[in-house]
Give the backbone structure.
Amino acid sequence: MRRGLGIAIVSTIALTVTACGSSGSSSSSSSSGGGGSVSGAKTLAASAMNSPPKGTITYCTGKDTTGDAAYTVAQFNAKYSAQGYHAQLVEFPASADQQRAQFIQRQQAHSSSCDVFSSDVIWTAEFSSQKWLYDLTPYVTANASKFIAAPLDTVHYGGKYWGVPQTSDAAFIYYKKGEAVPSTWQQVYADAKKTGGIVYQGAPYEGLTCDFLELAFAAGGQVLSADGKKSVLNSPQNVKALELMVSGIKQGSAPQAVTTYMEPETDQAFTTGKYGYMRNWTYAYAADSTGALKGKIAAAPLPTFAGAGKASILGGHNSVISVYSKDPGLALKFADFFASPAMQKAQILKFSLAAVIPSVYTDPDVRKAVPYSSQLLQALSQAHARPVSPVYPQISQAIYTNVNDALAGRVSPQAALQKADSQINSALATF
Ligand code: GLC
């Protein structure tokens, strides 16, 4: 069951990851809770979790492809059911966009069907602005020193804390042990052509925004102006990044099918053994080390964009508590359990999910089983946040729809970014 074990990571991580994200701790500064403001939210006392009413809370999360959600729920029940506290799992689709849609549908109906929701790091601004979440500031400030700064910052908006960090995330380039490790994106594409190709998430959804921004930020591009008021997407740097991705498909470095891939399809393709490289999140260390690739996968930090820099995108999920929950105290107990050292350690050992508390990365068992743990921690701390805005989903949609059109050959990279640029400006004008 310890699927995170036996997977190699090259030692170059130690050497190269430090340069990842040229703006250093950009994730902590750019998404600071200073932006925006939310008033009139319901606040949950930290003590609410101490002896909440007995019952069952529902934990809603995206498709549990690795089994980590079922594991967490089972562990919670094993620990607390004798006291009358239970959790049950509801799975939403694998697509981040569809998870968001499912949660929104329930919140708009004032439904109590999700007490705790596994909320992507990008949704804090939107969900809190809509007043769908409990303000968890009392609990989070009391526990703040326990968390890594970057994931903690993703629950901070309008000067308040809206969730409990659950898992953090960053992407790597996976390849078969023994292959060369490309040091630039250009080299990745060139080598991929000789080794079966690179697979990644190119379908029109949130994942493609991440995959594109990793190259775009590395090339020196940005999404929004420094004051966050207008789009700067249509820049020469971003066009260069998209041109590399588009020519990668045209010239056979990536299969055309990536334009339909989300994470599960990417894993399925890579584990056939047919492709030389894969871009995917940290969970893939454990998840893809099966079948023909068991013990044969290696991973490297995302490379440099030739002539420019390096960048990775901060991913991850937070436990947020719905204002329509009938037992928010029990919901907080579950969120607290998820963030506990024991659960965080189990998540990285069994499922290669990035812990949100630093002590896990120095735990001797984790060090032994996951030799790259300290580099992973560094990668998270240096990753770029995606733009923080209540209209982030529209910004992202403008990016992924048009980038997908370019990848599929329907429009030129330049035309795609021009269109996305104007759609982002329209979205920004709505709030
Ligand atoms: C991963 C990341 C999340 C990102 C999503 C995109 O789940 O953790 O932050 O938005 O992938 O598909």
